[in-house]
Amino acid sequence: MNYTLDAQGKKLGRVASEAASLLNGKRSVSFARNTVADVKVTIINTSKAAFDIKKLKEKEYVTFTGFRGGLFTETLEHLIARKGTKEVFEKAIYRMLPSNSLRKIIMKNLTITE
Fold it and tell me: Do the domain assignments include residue 68?
């Protein structure tokens, strides 16, 4: 199945949760947690999505390298300026999927355009 989601005027979390649910295969009759669903999801108009000004300033993405002094934080506004809205949607959907060995395979079924 191929699904197309339009992000124009919609919030990041609403679109991301719907895409994660579709990628998991929750809408299919033959849903099983241990298999990758035969579903392709395309998200269009991500650059026209609605972001709150407060969230742009206060939402932080934290990464840790594992070494001392390796804790890095980046705001949503800076991430959009650096990588674009495509990266923001990918991170949101990636973190909504179950953290098992199928997550990378499921993410290959996602296409995002700005």
Answer: no
CA 31 to each of CA 78, 87, 90: distance values in angstroms, whole numbers, following the listed order: 38, 28, 23
- Domain hosting 98: range is 2-50+84-112
Residue 60 CA neighbour count, 13 Å, CB half: 7
- Global pTM reads 0.91
CATH number where 92 lies: 3.90.1180.10
Tell whether the model's pLDDT for residue 1 goes beyond 90.
Answer: no
In a domain, 90, yes or no: yes
pLDDT of residue 19: 97
Q: Among 1, 5, 12, 10, which residue's Cα sits nearest to residue 87?
A: 12
Task: Report whether pLDDT(86) > 90.
Answer: yes
Q: In whole angstroms, give the CA distance from residue 35 to residue 32.
A: 6
- Is 31 a member of any domain? yes
